[in-house]
Amino acid sequence: MSTSTLAPAPQAAPEPTAVRVQERPRRTLATPRHWAELDAAEKTAAVAQAGLPAFRLRQIDAHYYRRFEGEPDQWTDLSPADRETVATLFPPLITPVTQRTADRGTTVKSLYRLSDGVLVETVLMRYGLRRDLTPGPRGVRSTLCVSSQAGCGMACPFCATGQGGLDRNLTAGEIIEQVRSAAGDLARGELPGGPGHLSNIVFMGMGEPLANYRALLQAVRAITTPQPEGFGISARSLTISTVGLVPRIATLATEGLPITLAVSLHAPDDDLRDELCPINRRWNVSELLNAAHAYYETTGRRVSIEYALIRDINDQAFRAGLLADRLLERGKGWAHVNLIPLNPTPGSKWTASRPGVQEEFVARLERRGLPVTVRDTRGSDIDGACGQLAARVRDGVTAANANNGPNAQIDQRGQVEHEEAVV
């Protein structure tokens, strides 16, 4: 089938706008330090200052990191007096607002309110279930998508979070609490498929992770430290996404962590990427791909090239060819292309590519020998794209109305990564 039967003639890139990256948060927040933010020496000191015996430290760690319990008043192996004392080390950081489900309960989007009222989202997804929701032959896996900032300052015009700007960075404790909350839901068997554990964590929620680097790395260390001092999740099971903060990519490569880097590219040419990802005006496509390739060479971890297919904007066949050129000129085997059917946000002019156009884009990359995945989608009917649910609630839609009940069951396909089909 010829390209001309699949898509209209290529259109020119949109005219540049005055959109600029928001470099600094609107505000910062001084929050009480949480147990999850303390290193080993600080934990020892905190226990001593609280007048607790030294063995309580390991008990506290086990409650938090192994049993995913964040409220000491429920810890019956501590005396009532000790529970009250320990509670001062666990200030409430995130409070559930609402939860929405899709895919027969295997996709759960949670909205949390932080101590200062800002909203953040997570998405928890289970894979490998049969159609009757029993475990499939390859086992069940669970992926959590977490937020690193309240809002985002990168100003990408097709992203719901980017349209709202950056409120503030999250603290390491607020990031870690998202993980503990989801891990607890899985351990209690609150999703189909029975009790389980987190298999993968992707920093692809609200915010630009590398713009909150210190808190991000502190959270990563807590996630990857063996239990009971941490959650004990392998760094190889973590993915950090970036829209293109080149110096931070270089720094991340030196951390000694085999984390997967995901580059939100979305366009292979500077003219278009300047519009879609304004940070490109600071570090262009060549600089970004050079940094990504250097990350691969340093860590040995293949880079994921994220590319949201947007109708008549970046989905032309010639751009598939240009994308292949840009990747292959740096060698083979270092990058995997992850194509994402765009989940449009309310009122946006951006929408997903036509099916035939998407197929041609894939075919052109595959003919060049590039590994390509088209991300199956989850969550479109639960405001699955990052920032959509928070925007609805923030704009005055109550959680009950947005959810049509506390746990509306929406058996639809939507927008967050679906790694494998139901078997």
List its salient traits:
423 residues; alpha/beta; TIM Barrel; 2 domains; two-stranded antiparallel ribbon; 13 helices; 30% helix; 17% strand; disordered N terminus
Report on this model:
With 423 residues, this protein is of the alpha/beta class. It folds into two domains: 40-90, no CATH class; 92-410, TIM Barrel, CATH 3.20.20. The chain contains 13 helices and 13 strands. It has helices at 40-49, 56-66, 80-87, 160-164, 172-187, 213-224, 246-253, 270-276, 285-299, 317-328, 355-367, 388-394, 399-403; strands at 94-102, 107-114, 119-127, 141-145, 149-151, 166-169, 200-203, 238-242, 260-264, 303-309, 335-341, 372-374, 409-410. The strands form two sheets. It has an eleven-stranded mixed beta sheet with strand order 12-11-10-9-8-7-4-3-2-1-13, sandwiched between helices. A two-stranded antiparallel ribbon has the order 5-6. Helix 7 links the parallel strand 8 and strand 9 (260-264). The radius of gyration is 22 Å and the shape is globular. Residues 1-18 and 397-423 have low confidence and may be disordered.
Question: Gist?
Answer:
Helices cover 30% and strands 17% of the residues.
Number of strands: 13
What's the overall geometry? Answer: globular
Compute the number of structural domains.
Answer: 2
Q: Strands across the major sheet, in which order?
A: 12-11-10-9-8-7-4-3-2-1-13
Unreliable stretches (pLDDT < 50, length at least 5) are 1-18, 397-423
Which class do the helix and strand fractions yield? alpha/beta
User: What share of residues is helical?
Assistant: 25-40%
Main sheet, how many strands, which sense, barrel? 11 strands, mixed
Q: Write down the Rg.
A: 22 Å
By CATH reckoning, the class of the largest domain would read Alpha Beta
CATH superfamily of the largest domain: Aldolase class I
> In what range is the share of β-strand residues?
15-25%
Could you tell me how far the N terminus lies from the C terminus, measured between alpha carbons in angstroms?
A: 31 Å
Helices and strands, in order, run as HHHEEEEEHEHEHEHEHHEHEHEHHE
The mean pLDDT is 86
CATH architecture of the largest domain: Alpha-Beta Barrel
- Quickly count the helices: 13
Kindly identify the CATH topology of the largest domain: TIM Barrel
